[in-house]
């Protein structure tokens, strides 16, 4: 409401009081609304940026993330609108510097010039410069056609006909290029787009590809890529230190249309090994025999949780390396539940150990072992003595007793990393590699069969391993699918994600 000085002079005292009361009411309303929106904004930011490992599991975040981002934008707009309505002291606000758009993107120039370059005085205007603003545009996937023209050459004397052979392809006599096959695989197993959604996307781009055809392509590619996954598994089993973890995935039972709980197991070289890779193994259950079958004759140091399925491996000669994060989590849950002082002290000691681990992360194995012996060993020895004493004071069966017992029973395994600089302190490395599976479950709903699950595990092994080595999964799969039909079996290792190098065109 804007009133000039002349109008104010003409108002009576009663009218001025009414106006002042009305303006004060508006100000109180806007202040209350601003306070409400600021609180909502803080709450949304806490939900979005809080430590997901302890406050929200990955499934919850994947379901809520988009809505939280949309709400944050809406609240921010509302707050900006309110602030512009209220007179405030001038404030110098530093704007975040926006990163320039990639220079390799094609650019379409749109000119905006005055309708007339003649001044109102009649003179001709001269151009003295320009302002440029770039906006990122997007056009849905565009298809193109590769025309492979093979000329026929004939001899007029002997009537011999010469023609270049048909290039080897992953799918003989099929219509998809390796680029299209790579796109379908990455969309399905990295972006979690089921084939019926891809069918709709391709349809909107003007190309009708039935999902049954897409499924055939996926099945064929899975078979062609399996030798690569087998070679990756062989190389992983040559490492002395491995991580292992497993996560449930629903699998459709044949015949009755119901699902049961299957498991996707994950294996990766130790966090300090010189190889970055992961291999997923889809199995019908969580039975320990699956881990024994996968690892075979391997006998090294296995970082894992306290799942009983690994116990037979340990009994057969595998060295158990405990996960300190799991032990810490027991006390974290205890502290959240009742603000336990015992849990608080334990968490402080675990934090000291993790501070040391951050210091030694970039050291070599010998230096890391020496630093752990000097710094972490006294902390852990004191913590063990303290835990033993506290356990004598708490009743059996209590939550505190269970948290203490978890660590005390597995103390040797939990602290084994102190004596070996190549061992990790916890199993978080493999848990990070298994998170994409938890995200995908929201879109898959279930695996259609054991074979489908195993095929998904194989392709996801290559995709996630490519990511771990800094490769674009699409570029990697496209190149691998192009070279695989003519690659010698003895040189298959060149196509593994940690060895792969794109051929310069």
TrEMBL record:
Family matches, as Pfam families: DDE_Tnp_IS66, DDE_Tnp_IS66_C, LZ_Tnp_IS66, zf-IS66
InterPro entries: IS66_C (IPR039552), Transposase-related (IPR052344), Transposase_IS66_central (IPR004291), Transposase_TnpC_homeodom (IPR024463), Znf_dom_IS66 (IPR024474)
Disordered as annotated region, ranges: 85-109
Domain named Transposase IS66 central: residues: 173-454
Occurrences of domain Transposase TnpC homeodomain (ranges): 37-110
Residue ranges of every copy of the Transposase IS66 C-terminal domain listed in the record: 461-498
Domain Transposase IS66 zinc-finger binding: 117-159
NCBIfam families tied to this protein: transpos_IS66
PANTHER family, A to Z: BLL1576 PROTEIN
Protein name, per record: IS66 family transposase
Species whose genome carries this gene: Rhodocyclus gracilis
